Amino acid sequence: DQVLYGKWTGTEITVEGEDYLIMQEKDILAVL
User: Fold this and answer.
1) Contacting residues for 22 by C-beta, under 8 A, at least 6 apart
2) Strand ranges (DSSP E) for the chain?
3) Predicted local confidence at residue 18, as pLDDT
4) pLDDT tens sequence across 1-32
5) From the centroid of its chain, how far is CA 18?
6) In this structure, are residues 21 and 12 in contact, taking their beta carbons and an 8 Å threshold?
7) In the chain, where does DSSP find H-type helix?
8) Roughly how many angstroms between the first and final C-alpha of the chain, as a whole number?
9) What pLDDT, on the 0 to 100 scale, is given for residue 3?
10) How far is C-alpha 32 from the chain's CA centre?
């Protein structure tokens, strides 16, 4: 799946070398 969200949405974190983007459900625009 692909997730569409606003350009300045969420917080980027790195855990054990993997990058993640944490955001609230209301900030998701679409799931394709």
Assistant:
1) 10, 11, 12, 13
2) 3-5, 11-15, 18-22, 28-31
3) 98
4) 999 999 999 999 999 999 999 999 999 999 99
5) 13
6) yes
7) none
8) 6
9) 95
10) 14
Q: Are 26 and 5 spatial neighbours (Cβ–Cβ below 8 Å)?
A: no
Under 8 Å between Cβ of 11 and 32 = no
Please report the pLDDT score of residue 22 as a whole number: 97
Q: At which residue do the structure tokens 């955001």 appear?
A: 23
Tell me the two tokens of residue 1: 């799946």
Domain boundaries defined on the chain? 1-32
Residues in the chain: 32
User: Which residue carries 């790195």 as its tokens?
Assistant: 14
